[in-house]
Specification:
Blueprint lengths: L4 E2 L3 E2 L4 E3 L11 E4 L4 E7 L4 E3 L1 E3 L4 E6 L5 H4 L7 E2 L4 E5 L2 E2 L6 E2 L2 H12 L16 H13 L2 H18 L4 H14 L5 H17 L2
Length: 209
């Protein structure tokens, strides 16, 4: 495939993308492919219609403007048909256009909305050992970190650790350690929980004497 390069924005507000090829596990049946594309501007998903895979793997963009991640499903993209592994971007839109006039996404809701967007990568919105990929979570966490949204960053990284613990190719020992870290400190992202667990342990030890 010839590599795509765009010096400006890619905007297709009313376009219709379809494929006559049946979507398969081998990633056939692509309606729109920006795989390995370099977009020096905004990828804007207005209100197009998609019938087939949307392949954004290894695409590099400046900004992704897709209504907080919700426009893909509204445009007909099915869960498992939005391929996100390797997609990188420097910023995301912060506008959710569920209303005609639009409304800002609350900072506390941004991570939850974007985590729902990432599940579009998985058939049935559910990761499996064969389909789980960590890169989209690391990329999203980096965006929240750059915005200074520490709560969002932690929420995304905790979600990645949870999925990796359940679906990553880990040994039983590694899964056990992951379970203990989740229980005691939320994978290290909740120091308060760790302190609380330690306090309970010390108190229990004192009672047992």
């Amino acid at each position: 495939m010839t590599q795509i390069a765009a010096d400006g924005a890619i905007e297709r507000p009313l376009a219709h993308f379809a494929t006559e090829e049946r979507v398969s596990k081998r990633k056939r049946g692509v309606a729109l492919s920006l795989r390995s594309a370099a977009v020096k501007g905004v990828i804007e998903n207005g209100t197009p219609a998609f019938c087939g895979l949307v392949d954004l793997r290894d695409c590099r963009a400046e900004v992704l403007n897709d209504g907080g991640g919700e426009r893909w499903e509204q445009a007909g993209v099915q869960a498992g048909h939005l391929l996100l592994d390797g997609l990188t971007y420097r910023d995301l839109d912060d506008v959710y256009d569920g209303q005609e006039t639009g409304a800002l996404i609350a900072r506390s809701d941004a991570a939850s909305r974007r985590l729902c967007w990432l599940t579009m990568h998985y058939p049935g919105h559910a990761a499996t050992p064969d389909s789980f990929v960590p890169q989209p979570y690391e990329q999203l966490a980096a965006i929240f970190a750059a915005e200074g949204n520490e709560r969002g960053r932690r929420q995304v990284l905790v979600a990645r650790r949870d999925l990796q613990r359940r679906h990553g190719r880990l040994s039983r020992f590694e899964r056990l350690i992951g379970w203990l870290l989740k229980l005691t400190s939320n994978h290290g992202y909740s120091p308060a929980r760790a302190v609380g667990v330690m306090a309970v342990y010390i108190r229990a030890g004192g009672v047992g004497r």
